[in-house]
From TrEMBL:
<dbReference type="InterPro" id="IPR004839">
    <property type="entry name" value="Aminotransferase_I/II_large"/>
</dbReference>
<dbReference type="GO" id="GO:0003700">
    <property type="term" value="F:DNA-binding transcription factor activity"/>
</dbReference>
<dbReference type="InterPro" id="IPR000524">
    <property type="entry name" value="Tscrpt_reg_HTH_GntR"/>
</dbReference>
<keyword id="KW-0663">Pyridoxal phosphate</keyword>
<dbReference type="InterPro" id="IPR015421">
    <property type="entry name" value="PyrdxlP-dep_Trfase_major"/>
</dbReference>
<dbReference type="GO" id="GO:0003677">
    <property type="term" value="F:DNA binding"/>
</dbReference>
<comment type="similarity">
    <text>In the C-terminal section; belongs to the class-I pyridoxal-phosphate-dependent aminotransferase family.</text>
</comment>
<dbReference type="GO" id="GO:0030170">
    <property type="term" value="F:pyridoxal phosphate binding"/>
</dbReference>
<dbReference type="Pfam" id="PF00392">
    <property type="entry name" value="GntR"/>
</dbReference>
<dbReference type="InterPro" id="IPR015424">
    <property type="entry name" value="PyrdxlP-dep_Trfase"/>
</dbReference>
<dbReference type="InterPro" id="IPR036390">
    <property type="entry name" value="WH_DNA-bd_sf"/>
</dbReference>
<dbReference type="InterPro" id="IPR036388">
    <property type="entry name" value="WH-like_DNA-bd_sf"/>
</dbReference>
<feature type="domain" description="HTH gntR-type">
    <location>
        <begin position="11"/>
        <end position="79"/>
    </location>
</feature>
<keyword id="KW-0805">Transcription regulation</keyword>
<keyword id="KW-0238">DNA-binding</keyword>
<dbReference type="InterPro" id="IPR051446">
    <property type="entry name" value="HTH_trans_reg/aminotransferase"/>
</dbReference>
<dbReference type="Pfam" id="PF00155">
    <property type="entry name" value="Aminotran_1_2"/>
</dbReference>
Amino acid sequence: MLQLIAEAVNDRTARGIAAAVSRLVRDGTLPAGTRLPTVRVVARELGISPTTVSEAWRSLAGAGAIQTRGRSGTFVLAPIRPRHRMRYARLTASPATLPHDLSTGVPDHDLLPDLAPALRRIGDTRLTPSYLEEPVLPRLEEVLRERWPYPPERLTVVDGALDALDRIVARTVHFGDHVLVENPTFPPMLDLLESVGAVPVPVPLDDEGLDPTALAAALTHEPTALVLQPRAQNPTGISMSAARAAALATVLRAHPGLTVIEDDHAGDIASAPALSLGEWLPDRVVHVRSFSKSHGPDLRLAAIGGPAQVVTAVADRRLLGPGWSSRVLQGVLLDLLTDPDAVRAVAAARAEYARRRVRLLTALAGYGVRASAADGINMWLPVHDQQVAMLALAGHGIAVAPGTPFEVGPLGGDHVRVTAGLVRDGFDELAAVLAAAAGAPRRASGRRTRALRRGGR
């Protein structure tokens, strides 16, 4: 077995070793249950440092390919990843058990545009004359291109933002690759990277987006991709400024092999204008625009725009699966994007979400709590102890998402994510409860905390 591993390794970096062992696992050469040689034995055979082999083993373990069982050794695992291991599944254990669920990260249903008029207007239009038609309705593509933050070489539509990210990652990221991600970031993105055996490298944020200096330092890992959220970053709500985007593009120009994947998940409910690094790096940026939070989660639609090499590969691969996203739903989306009443409804939702964020941030500031919720529907709340805060809030009937699944590396303290966009009223009362759970001192006035009004969410 040691000889098999040694012969398979043609790149003696940690990434190369992990990729070689992964291939042996995938093709059955190393079946489930196989005990691997020790780190020192492999290192001696390859003539490299044990630290390099240890890093490769960590990558494989993180991807669920192997498992170390103490003194018993390290073993190949069956290719099964239990759902409970996913970060996504840990955001909330039982979302329906508490009356005020602010853990979900979903939009307020009452602020979504009404789909009924759009459904009536498109009627029984025959939108699919052939299975090999273009995947996007021609008029919808025109409208999407008009709204795109830069002219994309190719554009297609898929079944939501996560479907888009999954397909883009499958085309651009391989086992052992290093991928730069925001810290904190959206947990399912980390699950996706883990599923392909990639290694996430955290890059910190400030109030304008990714830190350019930290990005430059992270590029020493020779990453293949950078994943970022240009607007209403989940969980912090940070939106990237135009000046910051230009600065990041300058840093990235020196690394032409890197693909930038942008997840504009908030779309039309974001207060910040649409922005993309594609304005500076159009041949390297794949931009995803979701319509779930702005027009309806059940539309399950998102657009991908970027280099034809990536977008065409995604569209062609879908021919062997779903083929295309429902053209009926595409027709509904087209109607919603062009109907004046629907456009006004989305604009009103955007303004209302902004009002709710400001009201809750202002109320929290009265307790000396500085949370992050500059845009979108989420709030990133610092707390002294995550578990204590969540238990305290549960005692008031409030569910929030734990901060740990969002973290790629140390953040200098605990956090929870609060879906501020679901809070309709009772801002002062909720702020008092959140501040107390966070460990903030009581207001000097000593005003007693009232229970949340039953009508608020």
